[in-house]
Amino acid sequence: MDSPTSRLLATATLISQGAEAKVYKAYLHPINENGSSVQPHSTERGEPILLKHRFHKQYRHPALDTTLTKARVAGEARAIIKCIRYGVNVPGVRMVDAPAGVLGLEWIDGKSVRFLLGGGAEGVEEVVGESEENEDEEFIEEDPLREYGISQDDIMRMIGSEIAKIHKADIVHGDLTTSNMIARHPTSPKGLQLVLIDFGLAYTSTLAEDKAVDLYVLERAFASTHPASEPLFASVLNAYAENMGKDWLAVSKKLTDVRLRGRKRSMVG
Amino acid sequence: MPARVRKRSPLKLPERPYIALGLEGSANKLGAGIIRHDPDGATTVMSNVRHTYITPPGEGFLPRDTAQHHRDWALTVINDALNKAEISLHDLDCICYTKGPGMGAPLVSVALVARTLSLLYNKPLVGVNHCVGHIEMGRQITGAQNPVVLYVSGGNTQVIAYSQQCYRIFGETLDIAVGNCLDRFARVINLSNDPSPGYNIEQEAKKGKRLLPLPYATKGMDVSLSGILTSTEAYTTDKRFRSNGPSDDDGEDVITPQDLCFSLQETVFAMLVEITERAMAHIGSKEVLIVGGVGCNERLQEMMGVMAKERGGQVFATDERFCIDNGIMIAQAGLLSFRMGFQTPLSKSTCTQRFRTDEVHVAWRA
């Protein structure tokens, strides 16, 4: 199998493996002799891209796996493009190879919100392990947010308004967690931005119900990864409510309903 | 996790052997089990007796009839358990019973037996959450330390991970449980309920070849199963469906009940493995423990094994003695909390149909 995609994957370096896919850093165009000296954003050449490879899941029936992979890659690309059209901060799409399960996205220079809120970065636990007995205390104590020049509340407001944008475009993200949001570094060409990533489970819906479930997923993710930051979620909702305008009422009603769901909850009243 | 610090378990080694009787009857199985915790930390299963209420093909078990079954069999099953363990009720330290979740009427009838024995022999009662019982027994039997737990049975479908003295639910079904989905489909195609509908589905699925398209409904960490059941049922009214297998004059394009069992299992299990994998990636665990009745399904175990291997982890599963509802798991979880000083006073020895896994304070773990 020597398709351009597989050749690209062969030159890429693996960054992490999530539940769905392996994530690589690659260069769309190999750097030529002059390429390296060119300004990074004056041309595409030499700019890194992120490859998301949904590899074949051995446990799944091959037929089921093929259809799911294809549908998810194409669906993710479509959702991202729709987001771009509505002015949501998302990574740009660089290449799509649905049958191979590969999606190439713009490389975003920044840190995940999960990391910024002190929830640790996903998947890098093994790397940090060694250095603990030396005076790392200070380094850990330092708030990563300071580097970005914003407060926790600022981040929450940015999250709220970004989610409101996708919901107003009738896109439901489907997997909102703090690991799926990246704060673009202030020194990058586009400046500080909150970027939503991983639209693998995204779909289109006009229902307040689906939007409320989206928010509920985020609420649970907050509760499970950042135990002390529940009041912060309220600030996400405030910003969300402001940006949603009159649609907020319906979503907020549904959100109350959704919170009561789940099986075998004790019923009070 | 920088430097795996082994936290000291709050559970101290017992100064003498402790013996507990566990009574389980939250669904159609009535179980009695006796467990012993020795001062050297060893755990012995002294007896584990179960009697299942089996209904004719095409019928489920109704709460009233199931409760009647439990009342009829309670004494036989408990005596049997005592004889096999070669002890008398006087030797017990506590009597554990299922407080919930489960069907109301069967729960109540078993709790009544537990209460009566407790008063007759003056033994303390311990009410146990059924799900926690499954998890604790699975951990005990397999030796898994801190696994992501997939709890799949006729009434429950949950992905669970332990954190801060609580079994937290990461994902669950939004409508019906996976065992319920399989059992109800078994009823549609008239499979026998003996030994269990799920087992018969598994055997039929081995003969299926064709994967029919079914909805694939994962929502984040959660799954939805009722629509899949409806779609699978819809195939039985398809004009290509042959309930007695293909006849000679049929072409290739036929659907057999075996194909439907196969497709249903493949789709539903792929969803379960997927949400388990999500939970593992989320919390960074490499161990999976499968508990609950559907956990005996070898295809599910196989798929989970492949997934765990891809992630460099390993899967733990138990056989039908401990997977399917049993009394011993209630005894195990009950005795753990009893050793931490927990008792259920008689006035509070009620049952509840709704009792979530995350409501239990897991005092015996660090």
From TrEMBL, chain A:
Q: Which GO terms describe its biological process?
A: tRNA threonylcarbamoyladenosine metabolic process
EC category:
transferase
Tell me the Pfam families matching this sequence: Kdo
Which SUPFAM superfamilies does its entry note? Answer: Protein kinase-like (PK-like)
GO MF term set: ATP binding; protein serine/threonine kinase activity
Q: What is its EC number?
A: 2.7.11.1
One cellular-component annotation, GO:
cytosol
The record places domain Protein kinase at 9-269
- Please name the PROSITE patterns in this protein's record: PROTEIN_KINASE_DOM (PS50011)
Q: Which reaction does it catalyse?
A: L-threonyl-[protein] + ATP = O-phospho-L-threonyl-[protein] + ADP + H(+); L-seryl-[protein] + ATP = O-phospho-L-seryl-[protein] + ADP + H(+)
Q: Does the keyword ATP-binding apply?
A: yes
Keywords noted in UniProt: ATP-binding, Kinase, Nucleotide-binding, Transferase
- Which Gene3D superfamilies does this UniProt record tie to the protein? Phosphorylase Kinase, domain 1 (3.30.200.20), Transferase(Phosphotransferase) domain 1 (1.10.510.10)
What the entry lists under PANTHER family is as follows: EKC_KEOPS COMPLEX SUBUNIT TP53RK (PTHR12209:SF0), NON-SPECIFIC SERINE/THREONINE PROTEIN KINASE (PTHR12209)
The entry sums up its family as follows:
Belongs to the protein kinase superfamily. BUD32 family.
- The protein depicted here goes by the name non-specific serine/threonine protein kinase
Annotated source species: Fomitopsis schrenkii (Brown rot fungus)
TrEMBL record, chain B:
GO CC, any one term: EKC/KEOPS complex
Q: Which residues bind substrate per the record?
A: Y151, V152, S153, G154, G155, D183, G198, E202, N297
Q: Name the needed cofactors.
A: a divalent metal cation
UniProt keyword terms in alphabetical order: Acyltransferase, Cytoplasm, Metal-binding, Nucleus, Transferase, tRNA processing
Q: How is the cofactor bound?
A: Binds 1 divalent metal cation per subunit.
Compartment(s) where it occurs, according to its Swiss-Prot or TrEMBL record: Cytoplasm; Nucleus
Q: What is this protein called?
A: N(6)-L-threonylcarbamoyladenine synthase
Organism encoding this protein: Fomitopsis schrenkii
- Lineage, please? Eukaryota, Fungi, Dikarya, Basidiomycota, Agaricomycotina
